[in-house]
TrEMBL record:
Pfam families: PMT_2. GO terms for biological process: lipopolysaccharide biosynthetic process. The chain crosses the membrane at residues 98-115, 121-140, 152-176, 188-210, 222-244, 250-271, 278-295, 301-319, 326-344. The keyword Transmembrane applies. This is Glycosyltransferase RgtA/B/C/D-like domain-containing protein. GO terms for cellular component: plasma membrane. PANTHER family: MANNOSYLTRANSFERASE YKCB-RELATED (PTHR33908), MEMBRANE PROTEIN (PTHR33908:SF11). It is found in: Cell membrane. Residues 48-197 form the Glycosyltransferase RgtA/B/C/D-like domain. The lineage of its organism: Bacteria, Candidatus Collieribacteriota. It is a multi-pass membrane protein. Its main location: membrane.
Length: 446
């Protein structure tokens, strides 16, 4: 059964894995190629510990820099999360819970989405899940073998070196050990935490960079993850329906309310609802990440993807306790419905820079403009080698200007660029939309 669940997880994660890279993935790809400066310098600006980048360098030396190659580590990590969640369920409540948890993880739209993204999130979720699995074994199963404590130490160390917000999981584990008075296990935590000492100066540098960026551009905080009730609500909404939305807000609210009612019904039946470790895993990173974002905007549901397995374990326990099969059919059916809706809704797919560059190359007169060249990584990744102008503050030349209205709210709030284009004698002749991208084509009035 484990093999069938993993095969299902793999199949669902292969659909659209070759879609265009979006901005952050393209930046990561260029960094791994060495085009963003020294990798440690890049890691400071990325506000993540460097493990994912180091693994990426090793992997791309073998596999190259294609979309699929850059996403394969996340794909494998996503499968690893499914496997460990299945094993965790078996450990907590027997074979049935393991199967249910594995199926929910295999079909969860949010886990699938980030298993197809060349960033650190899926890897962090995998490492945290594995760490929690061995942590629970350490607490509840006596063994003379050192394999379990060493495995816990290994996966804990790895997740600490992968994501800063995962450090709140580390603190949650520490608090739980104190609560259970398992002081004998603190040495493994101490050893894992000790490995971070060489990186702490770099953390302070990252914090300084983040504060400096926020001072120069306050709107940046809203983009990367400011504290708000909406951000907290989105964490749960995206956890259950994935990266989709609905234009009709009443329809959106009704769908979310309906799915919420289904989930809450089964959560009430969960035999694990009195398991404080799972609630700490689920809630503590959200609480602490939200509080931290009051001072430094770092919180988003993307960055706490590693809490999804905890939620799925709680939900799986309720489904496993329910005697009728239709409960499982409804929950899995809802996940697959939202996943299918995502597949057939290009507006929710990643930014299609690949098609944009293809179309630009077909027009020899194309001149590319955008609010800030700081966002040009996808163009460079896909081989655009012509000059890119910033019409807000540079001389405008050319008969046809392709103006990418990308991150205008961050880099050109007063819309100086379009105003300068109009002042220079350009008018919009047409507009083209791609998933995640809007292009205004300006032509000069001769």
């Amino acid at each position: 059964m484990t093999g069938m669940i993993l095969a299902l997880a793999l199949l669902l994660r292969l659909v659209y894995i070759n879609q265009s890279l979006w901005l952050d993935e393209a930046i990561e790809g260029l960094a791994l190629m060495g085009k963003m400066g020294p990798i440690l310098t890049y890691a400071l600006k990325d506000f993540q510990p460097p493990l994912y980048h180091f693994l990426g360098i090793a992997w791309t030396q073998l596999a190259g820099y294609s979309e699929i190659a850059l996403r394969t580590p996340s794909l494998l990590a996503g499968l690893g999360t499914v496997y460990f969640l299945l094993k965790f369920g078996q450990l907590l409540q027997g074979k049935k819970l393991g199967i249910v948890a594995g199926i929910l993880a295999a079909t969860n739209p949010l886990l699938i989405y980030y298993s197809q993204e060349g960033r650190t999130y899926a890897l962090t979720a995998f490492l945290v899940t594995a760490s929690m699995y061995y942590f629970f074994q350490l607490l509840n199963h006596k063994s003379k073998s050192n394999l379990i404590p060493l495995s816990y130490f290994l996966f804990t160390t790895l997740y600490l070196w992968t994501s800063y917000l995962s450090w709140f999981v580390f603190i949650a584990q520490f608090l739980y050990l104190l609560f259970r008075r398992r002081y004998d296990l603190l040495r493994w935590q101490f050893l894992a935490g000790l490995t971070l000492l060489p990186w702490l100066p770099s953390l302070f540098s990252s914090l300084a960079i983040g504060r400096s960026t926020l001072t120069r551009s306050p709107a940046w905080g809203n983009v990367v993850g400011s504290f708000s009730a909406k951000a907290l609500a989105l964490t749960w909404v995206k956890l259950i329906i994935g990266r989709v939305s609905f234009a009709d807000k009443f329809l959106y609210g009704g769908i979310v309310a309906g799915v919420a009612a289904v989930h809450l019904f089964f959560l009430r039946l969960s035999l694990l609802r009195r398991q404080p470790l799972l609630w700490l895993w689920l809630g503590f990173p959200i609480l602490m990440g939200s509080l931290l974002s009051i001072f430094l905007p770092v919180y988003s549901y993307t960055r706490v993807l590693f809490i999804v397995p905890a939620y799925l374990l709680l939900l799986s326990s309720g489904l496993a306790s329910f005697r009728r099969q239709w409960g499982m059919i409804i929950v899995v059916g809802l996940q697959l419905t939202f996943l299918t809706y995502f597949w057939f809704s290009p507006q929710y797919h990643r930014e299609d820079w690949r098609q944009l560059v293809h179309d630009l190359r077909s027009d020899p007169s194309a001149v590319v403009a955008m609010p800030s060249r700081a966002q040009n990584a996808p163009l460079l990744y896909y081989g655009w080698d012509q000059p890119i102008i910033e019409p807000c503050c540079e001389k405008i030349e050319g008969n046809k200007i392709y103006y990418l209205r990308y991150a205008e709210d961050l880099f050109d709030v007063p819309r100086v660029g379009p105003a300068n284009l109009r002042s220079a004698g350009y008018t919009i002749s047409s507009q083209v939309s791609y998933p995640g991208l809007q292009v205004d084509i300006y032509e000069h009035r001769n």
